[in-house]
Amino acid sequence: MHELLARAMQGVDPDAPGAFWRVFLNLWAMVPWGALFWWNLVFVAVGALLGWWRGRFWEGVAWAWLLGPIGWLVLWLRTRRRSRAVPPPLPH
What residue ranges are annotated as transmembrane (predicted)? Predict the structure, then answer.
């Protein structure tokens, strides 16, 4: 924890007016954005596949984009969309 705090406070004067924002930006700089981006693409791809299989493609993409793997569970627990049956033609 000391190492994380030291990295967040690097180059920050705690008494300066913008100290909060400097610490905030230091913390955001430590986030592995590249890995998060690629993992999110994997989550959305699996959500799209599950959504396509369940008849809810765009819903699968949306749930996976918003919730990641938890969105897969949401999609899995919802009922499968049935295709609408076409009624027979009316007699003349």
Answer: 30-54, 60-77
Rounded to two decimals, the pTM is: 0.66
Q: How many CA atoms lie less than 13 Å away from 71 in the CB half-sphere?
A: 24
Pair of tokens at residue 8: 């967040």
Dihedral angle, C-alpha 41, 67, 34, 30, nearest 10 °:
180
CB 23 within 8 A of CB 17: no
pLDDT digits (tens, 9 = 90+) for 18-52: 898 998 899 999 999 999 999 999 999 999 999 99
Describe the chain by its helix, strand, coil percentages, rounded to 5.
65, 0, 35
